[in-house]
Amino acid sequence: MSPRASKIVLPLLVVAAGLVAAAWFYPGTHGNRHAPLTLYGNVDIRQVQVAFEDSGRILSLAVDEGATVRQGQLLAQLDPARFRDAATQAQAQAAYQEQVLARLMAGSRPEEIRAAEAELSAAQATFDNAVTTLARLRTLESRHFIPKQSLDNAAAAEQTARANREKATQALRLTREGPRKEDIAAAQQALQAARAAASLAQRQLADTRLLAPAEGVVQDRIMEPGDMTSPQTPVFSLALDNPVWVRAYLAETDMGRITTGMGAWVTTDAYPGQRFHGWVGFISPSAEFTPKNVETPELRTELMYRVRIFVCNPEHRLRLGMPATVTLISSETASPPGPASCTASH
After folding, report:
1. Which residues, at least 6 apart from 62, have a Cβ–Cβ distance to it below 8 Å?
2. What is the reported pLDDT for 346?
């Protein structure tokens, strides 16, 4: 080979060797895009500050720090005395309004109608007598047997009797017609308000029992029996640790290899040989700088995408801050797990 040919061929061989080495050391840049993708991050958990709905004095606490609780389990109890009295009062008021409405709906009783008829009869008799007396006195006054004042008194008595008869007539008509529809509607609304107040009082009484909102572990016992509490004052801090999630970061070049719902295995140094089942729950839509506490093979100056991998934690082994390694499973080889499949695998 001539020296000039060597100057051309040797650089080409060097370039070819470099390409082969790159393909050997970085298989992901070629046909191995379906190889498992590994991420690194830390375990994170959700926390709930559990507080009473109303203010009051704490009567008792049922759990202590570190206790595992299930959803709906009793955690604490307020003194229920005043809430019980308020509920009793509200129930009595609702019962009273029910009777008021029932009385209006039933209308007038037969005895009330007969009493109104009797009142009208008496008023009619009084009126008839007043008319007769007035006629007699007019005759006597025309003959100058009585003074003019007596006639005037009889005329006034006749007018009073006439008005009383009209009043009794209208009272009998109203008694026969019964209550006005507006009064019935008002009574119905009053009953509805009383029932709502009774329901609220019962709810407030039930809220004297503080229940766990979800399954988790009691992280902090903040208050003690005898303390006064309010809705703004937490009694317990509850860690919801099943599932937990791993906060990891993904390079832009690997964005095409991950989708929401993709299955994953999570391992930690604390439990070597044990794998925890997980799935991709969130991929950030925007890039950010890599946090310093995340170990990745890429340079720190590169922008990454935050990823949240939910992890089943039925035995509460994974704890806040644990370093974790996530191996993603392609959808072709495993179906995406969900919360119902939260069981640890070995």
Report:
1. 73, 74, 75, 76, 77
2. 36
Q: Which residue pairs from 254-258 have beta carbons closer than 8 angstroms and sit at least 24 positions apart in sequence?
A: 254/37, 255/283, 255/305, 256/33, 257/33, 257/37, 257/328, 258/37, 258/283, 258/307, 258/328
Name the nearest CA neighbour of 327 among 40, 42, 45.
Answer: 40
pTM, two decimals, is 0.62
pLDDT over 70 percentage in the chain: 81
Dmax over Cα atoms in the chain, in whole Å? 173
Q: Sign (positive/negative) of CA torsion 161, 166, 170, 175?
A: positive
Nearest Cα to 231, choosing from 35, 17, 14, 55? 55
Nearest to 294 by CA among 33, 44, 26, 27: 44
Q: What is the 3-state secondary structure (H, E, C) of 262-276?
A: CEEEEEECCCCCCEE
> 192: pLDDT confidence band, cut at 50, 70 and 90?
very high
Angle, vertex CA 250, rays to CA 27 and CA 23, nearest 5:
10
pLDDT for the residue numbered 24: 40
DSSP state of 291: P
For the chain, domains (ranges, CATH) are 31-45+241-341 (2.40.30.170), 48-78+208-236 (2.40.50.100), 86-203 (1.10.287.470)
Give Cα 235 to chain centroid, integer Å.
Answer: 19
88: region left, alpha or beta (phi > 0 left; psi from -120 to 50 alpha):
alpha
Query: Binning pLDDT at 50, 70 and 90, where does residue 279 land?
Result: very high
Helices and strands (H, E) in the chain, number of each type: 5, 12
Distances from the Cα of 123 to the Cα of 116, 217, 224, angstroms: 11, 82, 75
